[in-house]
Amino acid sequence: MNNDYLDPINAVGMPELADATFALDFLIRAKNGVRNCAYAIAETATPAARALLVRQLTEALAMHEQAARLMMDKGWLHGRHLHGQYQIDMISADTALQIAEMNLFPDHTSRLGMFATPDE
Q1: Does the pLDDT value for residue 38 go beyond 90?
Q2: Which of 20, 60, 74, 98 would staple 1 via disulfide (CB 3.0–4.6 Å)?
């Protein structure tokens, strides 16, 4: 990885990484919604509120399944194949380490001549 974070070459592959990251965040939030609905059902005193929460739990489970299916179809999640998921996790960890090692606040940040800029 090029240590110059403003170099456009570093953007290669980033849209897919970003999509996978957003999808994983959505999946985690959907899972959290399932957990919260199940917890709320156990704490609810009235049948009407319980019925409402059961419907929401069913919808939350469906949303989680759709997000997981999308991620599996795209190859971003391997729920049933530990080796495949391990490889994805290692790539993610390596990328995170590379980003952590980058000098995100360099002393010199002038990019004149590198990008199309109007003459001043």
Answers
A1: yes
A2: 98
